[in-house]
Amino acid sequence: MSMTAKPEAQSFDVRPLSPLMAAEVVGLDLRRPLDTATRDAVYDAFLEYQVLVFREQTLGKEEQIAFTEQFGTLEEHMARNRGAEIALLHVVSNLGPDGKPAGKIGSTGWHSDKSFRPLPSLATFLHAVTMPPNGGDTCFANMYAAYEALPAAEKAALEGVRVVHSWEHSRLHKDGYKVPEEDRIAAPPMSHPLARTHPETGRKSLFLGGHASHLDGMSFDEGRAKVIALEEFATAERFTYRHKWRKGDMLMWDNRCLVHRADQNFDAALFPRVLHRTCLRGTAPA
């Protein structure tokens, strides 16, 4: 859905949240369409900080879709949105069929959204709708910083190495979920560069996360062990930022150089945690 109001310039401030990554954007009303200069300034900040936090937002589902579409092409979630009221927006929730907290949240392992696709996600937008009074944080690990911290010899050894990303593997590994045949056909395993070059910044990063099964061209066990070791290194605390949600926060992050996870550091059987997610389609990793 496109916004119909005439775009007008909006002023805003960008305030870094950590020395490594992430900045808050203060002063924008995301319900209003962005003029070209404002949109470009927001995107430049996104490339610089990798995680943007827009404060004090109150967007409905269609408004979030409209805001997201200003930065690229939206894509549907893999399976859960079939038959959903709005297929381009995924409701992230710990609520059960009865509408009450069910005791657990998903996506607690490190991952990059839709990395199993030929064109993995460019960016994810996540809007806090209902959050626990404390906790329910979202954590990010900077794959630029992790790659740059590797010894020179190891960087050289990673050149040309590819990693298999598999939605079926990640679902089985996570919770034993058996992927339907139609989804296996729609999302077969994909081989991507392990040391990925960002298409806009030119910086290299590790392309890992929960969908990364094993290194291509090796036995599964050997290739899997190397993926696990690299992910353990890359998600060390020195490479991470923890986002503590505030009411009305909208997050925008770069899946091409980050992995993320939700933290169940709250009573998920007592407090609801509901967020709205939209994703932008990216380009083939190189």
Could you walk me through the main structural features you see in this protein, from its secondary elements to its overall organization?
The chain has 286 residues and is α+β, with helices and mostly antiparallel strands. It is 23% helix and 25% strand. The chain has seven helices and 15 strands. It has helices at 36-49, 61-69, 143-148, 152-158, 167-175, 181-186, 220-234; strands at residues 13-16, 23-26, 51-54, 90-93, 121-130, 138-142, 162-165, 190-193, 195-197, 204-206, 212-215, 240-243, 250-254, 258-262, 274-281. The radius of gyration is 19 Å and the shape is globular. The two termini are 31 Å apart.
Strand content: 15-25%
- Side by side, the strands of the main sheet go 1-2-3-13-5-15-4
Which range best describes the helical content: under 10%, 10-25%, 25-40%, 40-55%, 55-70% or over 70%?
10-25%
Summarize the biggest pleated sheet: 7 strands, mixed
The unreliable regions are: 80-84
Structural class: alpha+beta
Shape: globular
CATH architectural type: 4-Layer Sandwich
* CATH hierarchy, class: Alpha Beta
Determine the CATH topology.
Double-stranded beta-helix
Distance between the termini: 31 Å
Radius of gyration (CA) equals 19 Å
Order of helices and strands: EEHEHEEEHHEHHEEEEHEEEE
